[in-house]
Amino acid sequence: MKEERSLSLLQLMVNEGLVPSPEEEENRKTFIEKLKQIVVAWVKRVAWQRRLPKQDIAVSSATLLTYGSYGLGVHGSESDIDALCVGPYFATMVDDFFIVLYNMLKSRPEVSEIYCVKDVKVPLMRFVFDGILIDLPFVQLKILVVPENLDILNPVFLRDIDETGWKSLSRVLANTQICRLVPDLKKFQSMLRCVKFWAKRRGVYGNDLLKFDFDWHNVLEPFPYTKKYAWFLKIFLSASKQDELGDWVGWIKSRFCCLLFKLEEVQGLCDPNPTEYIDVNIADPHVIFYWGLQAGKTNAIDIKSVKDVFWRNISTGYQGPFGKIELSIVKASQVPKSAQFDTLSQKRKKACWKMMDYHQRRIPIYSQHVPQYIVGYVSTNGDPEYPSAGV
């Protein structure tokens, strides 16, 4: 089912024009290569005008680095292209980029609507090339030869760059780091395409708010579960020891999909609030979840059948010591005040046994039985810390 949902989402993005066709993608690559050739020819001309030695003119070079949506691989059919022109030490922004390269581009039949934007934090040229809008800032590196496949994160290339150059480079550096650090680039790209599409449809995309009394707390305000839902599924998990609870909770959370499917099969809508809570009146290490339930059908829930199905699912494959699990239906009024999440004035609590110094370097401890699950940390002095029952 997950695979089918993922494929249907990808198909939706294609249908909405969020993913360029193979032909469009190839055309953009060809376009970038053509623009690179112009930039290389520009550098050769500037080197000749500067009367550099013939051998230096022969090896001198420049390149283009794409960033923004195209650099991240999340551009659409009609997206513009952000590219950074990276030049050698002898090519200046004022005389060579904004005059020589500008004139070369202006004389090309593929280029139209070209103009310079100089009095801004990141000076650039803006033009249309083969029907595609281009934003082209410039940075000067203190080298003669700029490799075509330049590794912009290599500190060798980042010496003695002025403030304007750093501002031009910052977006490229950010894009490069993102692409290197995300564990699955294709999944990240799909997610980002969806978020951008949602933001554009909602009128949010590209709109930094001008309201003077704007408060970020309003954006980050907890979802008012107890106001929206009158009934909740209470999931109570406990263990006899603190270091056993992390494994137990991790195992149960890895099987939550099964519980959710069964609930929605017999009850309809279920809103799984992921926040973990504790009851200060209970001594044993524990975690409590409250999932919102659709109104009007709670009386019809056969909670025993749900328990039986879920227990069979979690009983298979777990290698650690079993903890306790209790499922029950409660009213919103029965949700304890310590787990209220209606307003910012009421702090949401998470299962916690020890306050940590977050400035201290810590090494994660992974579960023996659920290898991808972090159950705690070891500080650099060797003391174990168990910050919560879950990640």
From TrEMBL:
Pfam families reported in the protein's UniProt record: PAP_NTPase (PF20750)
GO function terms (MF aspect): ATP binding; metal ion binding; poly(A) RNA polymerase activity; RNA binding
Q: Which residues form a coiled coil?
A: none
- UniProt subcellular location: Nucleus
Write the Enzyme Commission number(s) for this entry.
Answer: 2.7.7.19
Q: What family does the Swiss-Prot or TrEMBL record give for this protein?
A: Belongs to the poly(A) polymerase family.
Full protein name: polynucleotide adenylyltransferase
